[in-house]
Fold this protein.
Amino acid sequence: MKVDVILGLQWGDEGKGKVVDVLTPNYQLIARFQGGPNAGHTLEFESQKYVLRSIPSGIFQGGKINIIGNGVVIDPALFKDEVEALEASGHPLTDRLYISKKAHLILPTHRLLDACYEQSKGDSKIGTTGKGIGPTYTDKVSRNGLRVGDIFHDFEAKYRKATDRHKEILAQYGFQYDLEPIEKAWFAGLEKLKTFNLIDSENFINKQLSKGIKVLAEGAQGSMLDVDFGSYPFVTSSSTVCAGACTGLGIAPNKIDDVFGIFKAYCTRVGSGPFPTELFDEDGQKLRDLGYEYGSVTGRPRRCGWVDLVALRYTIMLNGVTKLIMMKSDVLDTFDTIKACVAYKIRGQETTDLPFDLGDGVEPVYVSLPGWKTDMAQMQSENEFPEQFNNYLSFLERELGVPIAIVSVGPNRAQTILR
Ligand code: GDP
Ligand code: IMO
Ligand code: MG
């Protein structure tokens, strides 16, 4: 059997958590392949709301096995909080959440380094989530990282060596900190982590595949935050594109089947960096208010704008998207006019290619479409779609060249329409 991949096509927060939860009944195994607690994946069902950070979004439907893959970075303290909150709400995980021994550990000093580097950047700061993501992936690539599997092998010495090195860097920057309380919570988290099945997840997943099991790979962040192809340097530090599912889980490219690309019917971004279709007017505020666009991890207001088809075509290309999933279309229900950016104008020249520097004088070229002015939140089937909404879908499919297979009309699991 093969692996289907779900990933975000914009700057994150597209609604990946909700869709993974909706599609989980079709799979036996769900695996996160990159990122860490910088993610906040929201799920709503039966009047309950959950925000998952490191744990895959397949844990709520039918006792499926969930895996945190080798490409993920884990902060044991935050992991413990997340697991305990789920246990308290009646969702014990120990038997069905497996963790790769090759996943890297976010150390307390990685979190401090993240804050220190941001502070030192001043106005050009990335606006990270402050979870130590960049420094942890940096240590991974520079071969200084600690992995989950290291917990059982002379861990104290390895931990001291790594943190001593980090402390030297922090001292060079004159960064002030109080490590003790963070370390205490971190080591308590490590004890919790040890109670889980820590496995060679690449072997496990491939054995399951050869037995005919269907796997869903869950991405975090979005392709425009990818370390290679995103709006660098205002990106995260992992491969958020489909190729990241191969390296982050140990699956071969020819095992990938469908690639579900998720996008909002408009667009948002948190943190710094270029965002060509960003709106600073009342339409932008309306999107923020109606879409409740505030970060699920940091609570920061998200920057809002119209859908950017230049960026979407680019990320569809990078990922080989086979099916599109459009989220939050209900947020546009009351707009008279909806705009979509179909090209960029750069120094007077129109282009449909994403430029090297997305921030340098890029002006969006818009097409305006009439809104549908209909409350879609309770709709259950595409037969109920208003004509103008169908026109918007057809326009997007024509522009993007990929079918829109699922439309989401509200945050609840039930507010999902398969086409
Ligand atoms: P993720 O990081 O991609 O999983 O997305 P987030 O959970 O960070 O952000 C998506 C937000 O939109 C969450 O608050 C969801 O509950 C909410 N949401 C998801 N789908 C819809 C939808 O179709 N309509 C509305 N109004 N909200 C949605
Ligand atoms: P999910 O999975 C939106 C952004 C941060 C910052 C940049 C780098 O919920 O879609 P990092 O802490 O990763 O070093 O921050 O990336 N960012 C996200 N934005 N959704 C996310 O995750 C994000 N994870 C990181 O705001 O601009
Ligand atoms: Mg999110």
In short: Residues 8, 12-18, 39-42, 44, 291, 296, 327-328, 330-331, 408-411 surround guanosine-5'-diphosphate (ligand 1) (CB under 6 Å). The first strand starts at residue 3 and ends at 8. The mean pLDDT is 97.
